[in-house]
Each structure stands twice: as structure tokens, then as C-alpha cells.
Amino acid sequence: MSPNLSKIAAVILSAGKGTRLNCTDKPKVMLEIGGRPIVAYIVETLQKIGFNKEQICLVVGFKKEIIEDYFGGSVSYGLQEQQLGTAHAAYVGIKSLPNEIEQVIVLGGDDGAFYKPETILNLITAHLTDKATISFLTATVANPGSFGRVVRENDGIKIIEKEYLTAEQQNIKEVNTGTYVVDRHWFEKEFPSFPKMQKLGEFGMNPSITIAESQGKKVQAIKLSDNNEWHGINTVTELELADQLKRTI
């Protein structure tokens, strides 16, 4: 059964410059795969699900006019004036949503191009059914490389970024996709107390899990049933692979 989407919205993180991809003239999410901007695919998927323009917020920053010119009035926008991390971008987007929104799916504009509508719907349904404060998608990948690992322990779930991995944790294949569903009011209340990630100096989403678990809130990690639906794009090679895959679909 499909969830009631009337009190749910999506925030798509689209403000990044894409330094590792040498993006100087356009935002990273506007790089093309399959002949279209990366971010266009997840916007289309959300529209197919039934989200209207008020329920799809693109958080923009670097070269924002390029994104706004492309999507026009088909979505709404939040402005991240300073690049202060993914959690800050999510907070900016969430603060701009209509008051009636209670749950928010937070997605990266650069890695959601291959999600199927049913994958998004299943994540939302699981989050609502289990009355979770935070639900997030994970994927099992052959070469986790620079991605944060999902560490499942008796005392809960943790996401360990690559900068903090032990030698043993580097062997973990389950990674965080960066796709979350969060309780809107909880996140708005707690974000101002988020610590900065020490080695990055910015506000990441990972502390949300630690904080929620410390409060006894429900946190769940849901594995993608098809790992081919997620492709992190951080290098030229990954961009080329995603482009080739889109052209074969």
C-alpha cells in the first residue's frame, strides 16, 4: 500500500561545487549523464511518485541560477549561502518547507539518479510504519573506497566516515547512500546542537543518528534490494560509468 504523501516532502542537496570533478562553470548536480543533468532524474522520480513543486525543495548555492533556469517553477528552492555541510543544507531545505510537512526525505542531488519510484516509496513506508525518527538507505558495494561505512553493533547503528575508519572497518562493504527520511520537527530542533565533523570542519548528517539513538529514538538502516540503484559520483571515472549506465537503460 502506498503511503499518504500529503505531509511528506523531499529536500535534494544541490548546492555543492564538485571540487573533485573540477566543476568551475556549473554545480556538480548539473553535470550530465545520459544527456541530462544528474539531478533531473531524481526530480522526475519524485514527480512520478506524486510530489508537487512545494514538496520538492532543491537546496542551491554555487551557480544556483543554472539550476533555477533549468527547473524554473517546477520545484521550490532553499539557498545555502555558505557550504557548511550536508546536515546544514538539509536544515536550510527543511526550514523552507510548508508548515504541514511532518517527514522529510533528504537526498543527494548527485547520487539519486538511478532510484526507482518503488524504492523511495518503500523507504517512506518503512519509516512511517516503524514510527522511526531516522531511516536511511544503505548499499553493499564491491569497492567502498571513500564512502562512509555502516557499522552495526549491539548498541545501535553507526556511520563511520572514511577519515575515521579503523583497519578492520575498512573491510566493511555496506555503505551509507546519504538518503535519509527524518522527522521534520525533531531535526529542526536538534540541528543547532550538532557538532562539526572534526576532520572536515562542517556539519554532516551522521551526528543525527548518534543523537537520536542517545535519546532512545528509533533509527533504522534499510538495505537497498538492488545495489545498482545507487551510484556515488565523486570522480571522473564514476561520472563516466553513470553516463554509460544511463545510456543503456
Describe this structure as you would to a colleague.
The chain is of the alpha/beta class and 249 residues long. The chain has a domain at 8-131 and 177-194 and 221-248: Alpha-Beta Complex (Spore Coat Polysaccharide Biosynthesis Protein SpsA, Chain A). 29% of the residues lie in helices and 23% in strands. It has seven helices and eleven strands. The chain has helices at residues 38-49, 64-71, 86-95, 117-129, 184-190, 206-214, 236-248, and strands spanning 8-13, 32-33, 36-37, 56-60, 76-79, 103-108, 134-140, 149-153, 156-160, 174-183, 219-223. Strands 5-4-1-6-10-7-11 form a seven-stranded mixed β-sheet, with helices on both faces. Helix 1 crosses helix 4. The chain is globular and about 45 Å long. The mean pLDDT is 91.
Largest sheet: 7 strands, mixed
Number of helices: 7
**What structural category do the secondary elements indicate?**
alpha/beta
CATH topology of the domain at 8-131 and 177-194 and 221-248: Spore Coat Polysaccharide Biosynthesis Protein SpsA, Chain A
- The secondary-structure element order is EEEHEHEHEHEEEEHHEH
CATH architect. name of the domain at 8-131 and 177-194 and 221-248: Alpha-Beta Complex
**Count the strands?**
11
CATH superfamily of the domain at 8-131 and 177-194 and 221-248: Spore Coat Polysaccharide Biosynthesis Protein SpsA, Chain A
Query: What's the Cα radius of gyration?
Result: 17 Å
Q: What's the CATH first level of the domain at 8-131 and 177-194 and 221-248?
A: Alpha Beta
Q: What number is the mean pLDDT? A: 91
Terminal CA distance: 27 Å
Proportion of residues in β-strands:
15-25%
What global shape is seen? globular
Low-pLDDT runs of 5+ residues are: none
Residue share in helices? 25-40%
**Numbering strands along the chain, what is their spatial order in the largest sheet?**
5-4-1-6-10-7-11
